Amino acid sequence: MDNLNNIDPQMWNKIDKSKKDAEKVERPNLTYWQDAWRRIKQNKVAMVSLVVIVLVILSAIIMPMVWKFKYSDQNLELANIPRKLEIYKLTEQDYIYITKDYKAIKVTSDGNLLGMADVINNDMTNRKRVYDVAGKEFVIDYSLYFNAKVEFNNLSKKAKKDPTIDLLAAEHELNNAKKYEVFYDGQLVEVSDKVSNKTYILGSDSLGRDLFIRIFDGARISLTIGFVAAFINFVIGILYGGISGYFGGRVDNIMMRIVDVISTIPMMLYVILLTVVFEPGMKSIIIAMSITYWVRMARIVRGQVLSLREQEFVLAAQTLGASTKRILLRHIIPNVMGPVMVALNMQIPAAIFNEAFLSFIGLGVSAPRASWGSLCNDALQGLYTYPYQLFYPALAISITILAFNLFGDGLRDALDPRLRK
Amino acid sequence: MGRYIVKRVISAVITIWFIMTLTFILMNNLPGDPFTSERQQSEEIKAAVYAKYGLDDPAHIRYFKYLRNYAKGDFGVSFQELGMTVNHLIKVAFPYSMKIGIAASILIIVLGVILGVLSALKQNKPTDRIVMILCTLGVTIPSFVLATGFLYFFSRKLGWVPSYGAGTWKHYIGPVIAISAFSLAFVARLSRTSLIEVLQQDYIRTARAKGLSERTVILKHALKNSLIPVVTYIGPMIAGIVTGSFVIEKVFAIPGMGDFFVSSIQNRDYTMIMGITVFYSIFVVIAILLVDIIYVFIDPRIKYD
Amino acid sequence: MTQKLLEVKNLRTSFFTHLGEVKAIRGISFHVNEGEAIGIVGESGSGKSVSSLSVMRLLQFPGKIVGGEVLFKGENLVNKPKKEMMKIRGNEIAMIFQDPMTSLNPVFTVGNQIMEVILKHQKITKTEAKEKAIEMLKLVGIPSPEKRIKNYPHEFSGGMRQRAMVAIALSCEPDLLIADEPTTALDVTIQAQILDLIKGLNTKLGTSTILITHDLGVVADVCSRIVVMYGGLIMEEGTKREIFYEPRHPYTMGLLKSIPKVASDTKTRLVPIVGTPPDLLKPPTGCPFFARCDYAMNICREKQPPYFTINEGHRAMCWLLHDEAPKNELYDSQKGGVRSV
Predict the structure, then answer these.
(1) pLDDT averaged over consecutive 10-residue blocks of chain C (341 residues)?
(2) How much is the pTM?
(3) Helices A249-264 and B2-28: angle between axes, nearest 10 degrees
(4) What is the H or E stretch that residue B279 is in?
(5) Contacts of B243 in chain A (CB under 8 A)
(6) N or C: where does chain C have the smaller number of CB atoms within 10 Å of the terminal CB?
(7) Residue A66 in 3-state DSSP?
(8) Which of helix, strand or coil describes residue B1?
(9) Is the peptide bond before C62 cis (omega within 30 degrees of 0)?
(10) In terms of DSSP H, where are the helices of B166-269?
């Protein structure tokens, strides 16, 4: 207010219309999907997840075609060999890896598996195995572990009478004790190097099959089941919910009562029952999951349709004489797609999860094929000795589910109309 | 309120009937007679099962026989192991599963809500971030992976807990954690979202305008409202615990009902599978019914729906 | 008599969103005398609700008072500790909100929600609080209050809920009642009842009242003084008579032209104010109304006008009131307010 009295006379002129309008803030007009895409692109976590999903799908398709092994290729001599090998250097050319069941495997210095060494003598009474390596004797003496085990067994018998004995600690000690000693040409040898397994980059399973390719082949099965089951759920759900919501009234009432009844049933039990009835396998898992998990989708669609039905634009279409089919296809379905897409995206990981669960309780695809769940199940037997056999398939499941979940969260945020600005 | 409860009970009875009929139809359509399978049974079992299920009778007579047996509380016998019945399992094995289930339910609800509330109140702060990351992992890792991982590290590597069986309380730590993880993470996320939404409601502003302390506003006005969606999740949670028990009891070698169920599946012991499935379904339906009744006390609006 | 109960001085409030600082209130000053009812009028987004929430210190994250003073009984509320603010809220200053459907907690009984505020601020027993709650419900005109206090909000109609809100607000006999759009969500007949109730309480109990609304018709009935807000600023302030019959700000004139007049015998058209309020993320440097103003001059865009006092207590923020401003016949013709139309 300092210069309230010295105002430029120009200032008192009426303002130009253009200057007035310049003040208006123009926001670009984006369609629903453009806006959603714009927002999901800004969400880094969601985009990374999308990339992960695409990579998993692509490698599931490509890997089994190009990899040196097939999922069914097996070599019993090279069973249960992990990703990292502790090797013994015997001569300049001869390196040996010892498996957890005391087999001597010949390897190259950089980790290529060559096969089992020639057995000279398997002395069960003295807990010794003798192999021939480059003309000299190579001895694995595993009596150490055997004696410790005998001691532990005695202790656990005593523990039944004497509760002060800490069996848990003793067992722990036993598990972490040194299990064997190795001699070459009469000399005690120590581990000389730790190399990566070049033959089986993620190790081999209990039948000597390549874990790496089995995981990618498993991805094919798990993802197929995930996508197909989710898609069928989606179709059934959208039809059921759409019909229920569109017709409303009595039809809706009866259809929703049925859904209420179905939704209180613990579905997993019936998926199990159906899989048992249809004989386990990929087809029966898909069928079982398709006819059970559509309820959620149906409810979402029905709710959306019901609220949309009352809205002006549907009314307008009706007044203009559009047919029921046309209204449903052209007006309602495009509008319910947002929430449905989110639900669909959540259905896929749920289906993968359920498939893994079924395989884990022995209702999975039949051998030699394996899904992620059955790979985990197979690994359970040797969990303590070969934990890597469980770790990698479990990691594959978790990463995939995580990616779907995070992408789903991003999708939900992007498609939520309440967040539109 | 009375009307609402009657309605819910009727609906539960219909659901149970539906479940039983569905199960009967499914089992009736098994490929071939259970006895034509390659698995061998003794003549004694065969006779007992035939007497019980009247396998020679036409389907509708068997159906009524089946309904009558179950209505009397007889859930059937095994056709692979003489003298084994579902009722015997319910008596011997189910208590183990129940123990784990109850402990898991308490853990899920109490810890889940606490974590969710904490997260919501510290929205976008480090506490919230950490809880949400854990929750995302919780719904990502399958329970059997968690269970085996737990066994490997805490029992094998560290030797803190026993690896199998169901003797002491220590035996239950792993199973309860593994079975709870998914639902716990879910409840934490649910109560967080719900509390954040409730805190933006007009009635919270009203409560603050009354001069109530932030404590009262949150613990009285916000919490009760934000618990409503959590209560609706209890039904699915119970179903989740039941199915979760199949793998968890298998991994931890707990002689519970879930473990027996999985063995029956692997042995294709059809009568056992049927009996246990129906038992579990009825159990879950009744549990959901109870939750629905409790719900009335949390949300007064439900009475007039 | 003309003791100032509440005095707001140069209050500024902003919302710190991820897009930037939204300056919702950009320096407003007004006061409420003891026993007086004033109205704050403006369209949505003008900052009227934010100013009431600022007075109560009820702004939620990311909202924050960034400057100015709120003097209540001579004490500044802006920097009062939370504990003391809690003693004032609901007790000395009470508030009624716009939507009675959502302003009551659905999971507690109405009685519980009235008793709660009484028990919080007064040292009395539960039974006494219950009696008081019944008495309050009777006061606001709810039939058979003994039964009604056991009801949940969803068992009340919209009008009854707003009555219950008034009961909550008045149960501790506050010195100041802030009613934020108390009738907007209600049917017309119920609106009149609630306004009568608020007006009656103002005259009977002597409770000072701030009535916030977008509807000039509503304030006409209840308030003696009116503050017109736009774009986070006060555009004009004056007595009811001055605002209605001698408006000086083009925005006030526009508001007056946009309300229907039932009693009018001539056929007049309702004239909407064309355009939308300014974006307070980037508030205009000049007058916030210039883009929608029929009389806008160059200076209106460049420089925010000062307040020009027309009479004692009647001021307006408009360059047209400047001595050097050119005569504008159209503008002058509107100076008679509602009479001239």
Answers:
(1) 84 87 90 91 86 90 89 90 90 88 90 92 91 90 90 89 89 90 81 85 86 86 90 91 90 83 60 75 84 84 88 89 81 72 44
(2) 0.82
(3) 70
(4) helix B270-298
(5) 266, 268-269, 357
(6) N
(7) helix
(8) coil
(9) yes
(10) 170-199, 202-209, 214-216, 223-251, 257-267
Pair of tokens at residue A23? 């003040």
CA dist A333 and A243 (Å) reads 11
Q: Do C102 and B201 touch (CB under 8 A)?
A: yes
A417 to chain B, closest Cα gap in Å: 16
**Tokens, residue A371:** 């899904």
Hey, of B123, B196, B197, B210, which one would you mutate to test binding to chain C, going by the most C CBs within 10 A of its CB? Answer: B210
Q: Answer for the pair A64, A216: CB distance below 8 angstroms, yes or no.
A: yes
For the segment A19-50, what is each residue's pLDDT rounded down to a tens digit? Answer: 666 555 555 566 667 777 888 888 888 999 99
| C297 secondary structure, DSSP code | B
The edge-to-edge listing of strands for the beta sheet with A113-116 is A113-116, A104-107, A95-98, A84-89, A193-196
- Residue C328 in any domain: the answer is no
For C118-166, give the secondary structure using H, E and C. HHHHCCCCHHHHHHHHHHHHHHCCCCCHHHHCCCCHHHCCHHHHHHHHH
Q: How many domains does chain C have?
A: 1
Phi, psi of C227, rounded to the nearest 5 degrees: -115, 125
- Residue C279, domain member (yes or no): no
Looking up residue C18, the CATH number of its domain turns out to be 3.40.50.300
Per the structure, the complete domain to which residue C70 belongs is given by 4-230
In a domain? residue C246: no
Structure tokens at B148: 């085996």
Strands ordered across the beta sheet of C37-41: C93-96, C176-180, C208-213, C37-41, C225-230, C233-239, C314-317, C307-311
Residue B137, helix vs strand vs coil = helix
C199 in a structural domain: yes
Tokens 């009470």 sit at which residue? C94
Q: Would you state the structure tokens that stand for residue B84, as one six-digit string?
A: 């084994």
Domains assigned to chain B:
92-268 (1.10.3720.10)
Nearest beta carbon to residue B206 from set C86, C91, C104:
C104
Q: How many CA atoms lie within 13 A of A299 on its CB side?
A: 12
Amino acid present at C206: G
Pair of tokens at residue A172: 């722990």
Distance of alpha carbon C168 from alpha carbon C139, whole angstroms? 11
Q: Which residues of B touch A269 (CB under 8 A)?
A: 242-243, 277, 280-281
Ramachandran sector of residue C273 (left: φ over 0; alpha: ψ -120 to 50; beta: rest): beta
Size of interface A-C (CB pairs under 8 A): 47
Could you give the CA distance from residue A295 to residue A256 in angstroms, rounded to a whole number? Answer: 10
Residue C316: Cβ-neighbour burial (10 angstroms; 0-12, 13-18, 19+): buried
Place of tokens 């009961």: C167
Q: Is the dihedral of CA C269, C275, C276, C280 positive or negative?
A: negative
**Using alpha carbons only, what angle is made at residue C186 by residues C183 and C191, rounded to the nearest 5 degrees?**
55
